[in-house]
Amino acid sequence: MPRNLAQTLVLRRGLIVTVAAIVFLVSGTPASASGAITVTNHFSTLFLIATPPPAIPAGCPIQLPFAAVSNSGNGVMHLTVNSTGDWFTMTFEGNATISPVTFDSLGDPVLGPPTFSGHIQVWDGGADNLRNRVFHVTANFQGTSLTNSTVTVDLHANFGATFNANGSITATPTNVTCS
């Protein structure tokens, strides 16, 4: 069974803070004297799993769950952590393939063979402070079927989640279009 949105966001936040701590320990120098840690990381690969929610329109040739995989892109992530919380942004663009995903008995993803190839752009971000959390992502994919070159797709999705101080989700704005 796939992880739900709240579990995914908690795992993601933990991973980002862990990465920031490792980078801090390796670099040995905080970005400012105030105790804040600021990290900027450039990367060229992306592995993005999309699971419900949100729903993709029924006529779209790509359906959930799926994974977008890129080994040839341009990405940058910025992270700031201080005593009141953490903030991150991520931008990525590059060539990508889309593969269907199933989940094993532990909830871990298992990728099927790629079905579409094309270009992806992703903008991602979040903030976690003493009173609330927000997370948002916008993604675009334009591609062609690997089994029928006459089938193309233009997929645009944006969604987010807002959590209150108790950790309850208070808003989940979502919009997905596909043509």
Provide a quick synopsis of the model.
By secondary structure, the chain is mostly beta strands.
Account of the protein in words:
There is one protein chain. The protein is mainly beta. The chain is globular and about 55 Å long. A hairpin with a 6-residue loop joins strand 7 (133-145) and strand 8. It has one domain (5-178). The model is unreliable at 1-31 (pLDDT under 50). 14% of the residues are buried. It starts with a helix and ends with a strand. Helices cover 13% and strands 55% of the residues. Strands 1, 2, 3, 4, 5, 6, 7, 8, 9 and 10 form a 10-stranded antiparallel β-sheet that branches. It contains 1 helix and 10 strands; from the N terminus they run H-E-E-E-E-E-E-E-E-E-E.
CA gyration radius, whole angstroms: 17 Å
The number of strands is: 10
Find the structural class using helix and strand composition.
mainly beta
Give the helix tally: 1
Oligomer: single chain
What's the SSE pattern? HEEEEEEEEEE
Residues in β-strands, percent = over 45%
Molecular shape: globular
Largest sheet: 10 strands, antiparallel
